[in-house]
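quick q for whoever's on today - can somebody do inverse folding on this one?? i tried earlier but teh output was garbage lol. tokens:
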């Protein structure tokens, strides 16, 4: 569906997301606290007049996605960690989603994985224009990753984005065989390759400290729904003890997000940009 609302708000949310991504990449150093890095990313988004579209994801090594620190997380990054810095901002539901991968301490063991996703995101974006089949984008991503001698993660995808819908109707797979669908002018799309030296697939791991509402709750959770609506959030953002207790009581109204873990134990890299589909190409909204 073509973008809803003022394009300037989408562009502003995208620039804020990109700046938060780069801040996170700089902060992921040996000895840094995972929780402190996540909170710094999220606070940078709020300081610019937006809200996080989802909790800052700082998934490491075999974790592909969906890990955000819990309120009591005391872990620290170590040299050699392969960290996916996946962040998003929104302004009144206009969402941008972007990611990069950092090898902590620049140990250079996983340069090939990082280059694979960097080249794949550029290859996918280069195919974007109004009327392009999704399959053409997927093929470009898959070929770029294979050229680096590693595997695309077959069951993770990019996605269209709509207002207050981070994952809207269309998936953009990182391998051939996706939906028989073409992109429309004005759509907002996240191009999101993942590459691995493992099996090439993910499976569900433990709870990643991310939730969202299954529907629109009434009663004591209604004010929290007005704050987050359909978007993911985390317990770190709920400071009021009474509200936190209400969430625990009504946990059946919440969808939980597991960490996605590489099924063969491989390390995973990710790159992501949000783009606007134009008649002749893509406007890369999250590129600084």
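ok took a stab at it. sequence:
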């Amino acid at each position: 569906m073509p973008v809803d609302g003022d394009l300037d708000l989408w562009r502003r949310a995208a620039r804020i997301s990109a700046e938060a991504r780069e801040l996170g990449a700089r902060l992921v150093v040996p000895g840094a606290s995972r929780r402190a890095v996540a909170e710094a990313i999220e606070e940078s988004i709020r300081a610019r007049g937006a809200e996080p579209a989802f909790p800052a994801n700082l998934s490491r090594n075999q974790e592909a996605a969906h890990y955000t620190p819990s309120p009591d997380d005391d872990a620290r990054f170590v040299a050699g960690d392969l960290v996916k810095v996946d962040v998003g901002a929104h302004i009144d539901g206009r969402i941008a989603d972007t990611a990069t991968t950092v090898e902590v301490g620049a140990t250079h063991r996983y340069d090939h994985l990082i280059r694979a996703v960097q080249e794949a995101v550029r290859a996918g974006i280069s195919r974007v224009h109004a009327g392009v089949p999704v399959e053409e984008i997927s093929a470009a991503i898959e070929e770029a990753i294979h050229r680096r001698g590693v595997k695309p993660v077959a069951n993770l995808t990019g996605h269209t984005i709509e207002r207050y819908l981070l994952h809207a109707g269309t998936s953009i797979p990182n391998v051939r065989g996706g939906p028989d669908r073409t992109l429309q002018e004005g759509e907002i799309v996240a191009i999101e390759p993942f590459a691995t030296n493992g099996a090439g697939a993910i499976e569900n791991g433990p709870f990643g400290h991310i939730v969202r509402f299954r529907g629109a709750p009434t009663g004591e959770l209604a004010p929290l729904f007005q704050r987050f609506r359909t978007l993911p959030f985390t317990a770190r953002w709920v400071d009021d003890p009474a509200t936190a207790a209400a969430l625990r009581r009504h946990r059946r109204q919440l969808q939980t997000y597991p960490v996605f873990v590489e099924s063969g134990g491989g390390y995973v890299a990710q790159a992501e940009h949000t783009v606007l589909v134009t008649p002749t190409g893509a406007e890369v909204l999250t590129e600084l």
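fwiw DSSP finds six helices and 15 strands in the chain. also The mean pLDDT is 96. so keep that in mind when u check it
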